[in-house]
Each structure stands twice: as structure tokens, then as C-alpha cells.
UniProtKB/TrEMBL annotation:
Family matches, as SUPFAM superfamilies: S-adenosyl-L-methionine-dependent methyltransferases
Taxonomic placement: Bacteria, Bacillati, Actinomycetota, Actinomycetes, Mycobacteriales
GO MF annotations in UniProt: malonyl-CoA methyltransferase activity; S-adenosylmethionine-dependent methyltransferase activity
Transmembrane segments: none
Official protein name in the record: Malonyl-[acyl-carrier protein] O-methyltransferase
Organism: Mycolicibacterium chubuense
């Protein structure tokens, strides 16, 4: 599974969903102007951009060198570092809030990562995370098409946090208090099938890896199955995510 990809590829693949999600996720977390916030697993900066526009003071971290470089160019004033959630290189109590958008399900140790987020957040501060819902998230139409051809293929639905209650369990195990979980959703209009499909060929994440492993005949068959389900466009993908927040 790869996220060491050009930021432009990731933006076309996931940014189209992550950018509108950032607004509703930040509102759910209750952070905004004047807050010192850590964006964990920042990617090319969808959440960072929204937090900055809302007046927050933002630091960011991601394990992907291209994403870190992109943030440094895009936001020169942001303290952005390369690293993982499980080993955050910050002092304890350094932030008012730590947020992770579409990251927990890819953490090697989700409880450890959330625990680290809590460590770097001051007492009374907020830790929040969101993850696409397995059956109804942004990638659900793609995996539905895959399963129409290969029902036994494992998708992203079993990843950490991808079902109701999983994030709450992780947060409580990590020691957070007053944990609340809710469902968030964004609607993204795709003007044409090709605009939706092409980013899946860029090799981003589990879906991109799956497409890359197919031969030409297999890719054509999957593309045809997806087009049959979605149509030529325009069409709307309603992407649902689970979100949890807790108090340190």
C-alpha cells in the first residue's frame, strides 16, 4: 500500500473528498480560531488548509516525503515534519487539539497512535479522528464494482475505525474521556465517469494498489463494471465517515 505518490495524484484521488470533509470534521472537533492544532497524517494538506483558513495555528506531520515537501511549499509558515502518529516528535501538552483525518485506519498501532495524540495535547484539550465508513465511504462505489467481479477480495471495510463504534473503542482504550462518536457525510459531484475512474489508476492506497496489480484485461473489466453501476455521469457520491472526539 503506497502513499509515497505525487501530491497531485493524491489530491485527484482523495482530495476531492477530503477537502469538503475537512470543514465538517473540524466543526465536529470543535476547533477553530486561536487554537493550536496538530494535523496528524496531514497528506498534501486538506485539513491543514481548512484549519488555517479558520484561524487556527497549525503544525503538521506525515510519513510521506512528497506530502511533507508539498506542505512546506504550500504553507511556508507551518511547522511540518516527517513522522508517524505512533512516534510523534513533540513535547507533551504542546497543543490544544490533535486531529487525524482519514488516518487511523492506516496506523500500524491505532491505540498507540491515538495515545500519542493525547500525550501531545494539553489536559482538557481535544483529540479527534475520522475514517470513511466501510460500506458507505468515499471508496465504496469502487469496492462495490470490485466485488461484483471478485466477491472474495478484501476491501478497506475491516480497517480500524471503519464501522460504528470502532473509533470509540480505540479512543477509550487510549485513555480519552467523554468520547463522542457521530457520522459525517459529504456529497461530491463527478461530472463524468472518466473523472471519477482515472485517479484509481494512479496507485494511491489499497484501491490504487489493487488496480495496479490487474492486467490490462482485468482493469478493463473492472472499469466496465464500475461504469455499468455508476453510469457515464454526472453522478453524486455521498461519502460517509465515522468521527470520534475525546477529552484528554
Amino acid at each position: 500500500m503506497s502513499f509515497v505518490v505525487p501530491p497531485e495524484a493524491y489530491a485527484r484521488f482523495m482530495g476531492r473528498y477530503a477537502e469538503p470533509l475537512a470543514e465538517v470534521f473540524a466543526a465536529f472537533a470543535g476547533v477553530g480560531a486561536g487554537d493550536k492544532v496538530l494535523d496528524v497524517g496531514c497528506g498534501p494538506g486538506a485539513l491543514t488548509a481548512h484549519l488555517l483558513s479558520a484561524g487556527a495555528e497549525v503544525a503538521a506531520i506525515d510519513p510521506s516525503p512528497p506530502f511533507v515537501d508539498a506542505i512546506r511549499v504550500r504553507f511556508p509558515g507551518v511547522d511540518v515534519r516527517r513522522g508517524t502518529a505512533e512516534e510523534l516528535p513533540y513535547d507533551s501538552d504542546a497543543f490544544d487539539a490533535a486531529l487525524a483525518q482519514l488516518v487511523v485506519h492506516f496506523m500500524t498501532d491505532p491505540v498507540g497512535g491515538v495515545r500519542q495524540m493525547a500525550r501531545v495535547t494539553r489536559g482538557g484539550g481535544v483529540v479527534a479522528a475520522c475514517v470513511w465508513d466501510g460500506p458507505t465511504g468515499a471508496l465504496a462505489p469502487f469496492w462495490d464494482a470490485v466485488h461484483a467481479i471478485a466477491p472474495d477480495v478484501e476491501d478497506e471495510a475491516l480497517l480500524s475505525g471503519a464501522h460504528k463504534g470502532h473509533l470509540t473503542e480505540l479512543f477509550e482504550t487510549a485513555g480519552l474521556r467523554d468520547v463522542e462518536e457521530d457520522s459525517l457525510a459529504v456529497d461530491v459531484v463527478h461530472p463524468a465517469f472518466e473523472e471519477w475512474w482515472e485517479p484509481y489508476t494512479f496507485g494511491v492506497g489499497p484501491a490504487g494498489d489493487y488496480v495496479r496489480r490487474l492486467d490490462d484485461k482485468g482493469r478493463a473489466r473492472l472499469e466496465s463494471a464500475a461504469r455499468e453501476r455508476l453510469g457515464d455521469g454526472p453522478f453524486t457520491v455521498t461519502a460517509a465517515a465515522w468521527a470520534a472526539r475525546g477529552t484528554v
